[in-house]
Amino acid sequence: MDSLGTSQGPATPGIRDDGAQPPAAVVFDLDGVLVNSFAVMRQAFTTAYAEVVGAGEPPFEEYERHLGRYFPDIMRIMGLPLEMEEPFVRESYRLAHLVPVFDGVPEMLRDLRARGIGLAVATGKSGPRARSLLEQLGLLDLFTVVIGSDEVERPKPAPDIVLKALSVLGCEPSRTIMVGDAVTDLTSARGAGVAAVAALWGETDEETLLAESPDAVLRSPSELLEVCVGRSRTP
């Protein structure tokens, strides 16, 4: 793998039994889709707020409304000091061992990969932090590429990060889907011309996400297999 976490080439696209072409690649958001990082995120944010801003209740609920964006961009939107990034990142690394994978995600990823579907991550995190976490969880090698918001000119909701994933995967937008739990994910997906799929198994704001009329709505990781290859197909 290189500095982006790129492995040896994209997977070979699969074909459904009915002759229709299913998605050849899936681009995932990370937090709230693959990993349940909300408790660690809250703790890191609380520590960073206390160190940089001082006493008072950290506005984590407002922070959550901007998830999917790059941390410095969220700080600018919220009017908080950019200096919060250093302790936030430090604490995120320190507490990374406490971040669990959502139930069913490893099995879903391995099944998709075994069926020849290319996998990528496009996250609001920095690339090094995202790859470090996925490696610690034993999932990094399942992805052709893992791209962070610091590795594109314009982070989500711009389409750049999804377009970069498509370029590495070697896949057409029409045969790619993006799975995310935030409006910024859906906006980024649509800007890149890929199907926007809402993941509702995390702590997302379901009403807000559904109001964006995603192309598909998933309530468990296993449902992604139906979207990609159908229920009846066996490996």
From TrEMBL:
One of its GO terms (cellular component) is cytosol. It comes from the Bacteria. It catalyses: L-tyrosyl-[protein] + ATP = O-phospho-L-tyrosyl-[protein] + ADP + H(+). The keyword Kinase applies. Keywords: Kinase, Transferase, Tyrosine-protein kinase. Residues 1-20 are annotated as: Disordered. Residues 1-10 have a biased composition (Polar residues). GO terms for molecular function: phosphoglycolate phosphatase activity; protein tyrosine kinase activity. One of its GO terms (biological process) is DNA repair. The keyword Kinase applies. Belongs to the HAD-like hydrolase superfamily. CbbY/CbbZ/Gph/YieH family. PANTHER family: PHOSPHOGLYCOLATE PHOSPHATASE. This is Tyrosine-protein kinase PtkA.
